[in-house]
Amino acid sequence: MFITFEGIDGSGKSVQAKRCVEFLSKDHEVLHCFDPGHTPIGNAVRSILLNKDHMEMDARTELLLYAAARSQLVIEEIEPFLAKGGIVVSDRFYDSTTAYQGYGRELPLDLIVQLNMIGAHELIPDLTFIIDTDIDTAAQRIGKADRLESENREFRARVRHGYLLLAEQEPDRCKLINGDRSIEEICAEIANILQKKMAE
Length: 200
Ligand SMILES: Nc1ncnc2c1ncn2[C@@H]1O[C@H](COP(=O)(O)OP(=O)(O)O)[C@@H](O)[C@H]1O
Ligand SMILES: [Mg+2]
Fold this sequence. Notes:
This protein has 8 helices and 5 strands. It is α/β, with parallel strands linked by helices. The protein binds adenosine-5'-diphosphate and magnesium ion (MG).
């Protein structure tokens, strides 16, 4: 089983992914990974993406770097772990590319869908939790509310909207979780959905 956590920055993905790993680790072998990153190549690509000196980075360059990091993560870590019968929990995966580069940066969605399949080696998550949190609440959680310009706010609103559309388009895989609640409430709902899915 391959499970991914998605949502805007500050939505609460990492907290919930960690809880999910703790919950599943009681009875299963679990790999907890994050995209981009985790592999040496992925971490190198991640540091290029996060480097604030690279202000000139073109949106398509960014798109391709994310896909490159993901390809390595799938081949080196995710697929071998799934092949051994383990459960993989990833903090972000290709839905982030659709939401951020597709809806956020407004790159062509049809091309992104194809590139996502290339980068993921056609691996589709079995279950994706989209944590949907108000953009101002999310920004406050990560202490960025004051520094955000209006353009940045609009960008994050487009990303959130993109995630909502993904949840509508793929309701079986993508479970929309209201992130404007306590960590405990969200965690309980996720555990419930997981238990049902594992019983299938
Ligand atoms: N439901 C929640 N209510 C209040 N604070 C939360 C909630 N979920 C996460 N947080 C806090 O918000 C911050 C960002 O959460 P995190 O899981 O790192 O978000 P993300 O990985 O989506 O960027 C952390 O300090 C975390 O403890
Ligand atoms: Mg996080």
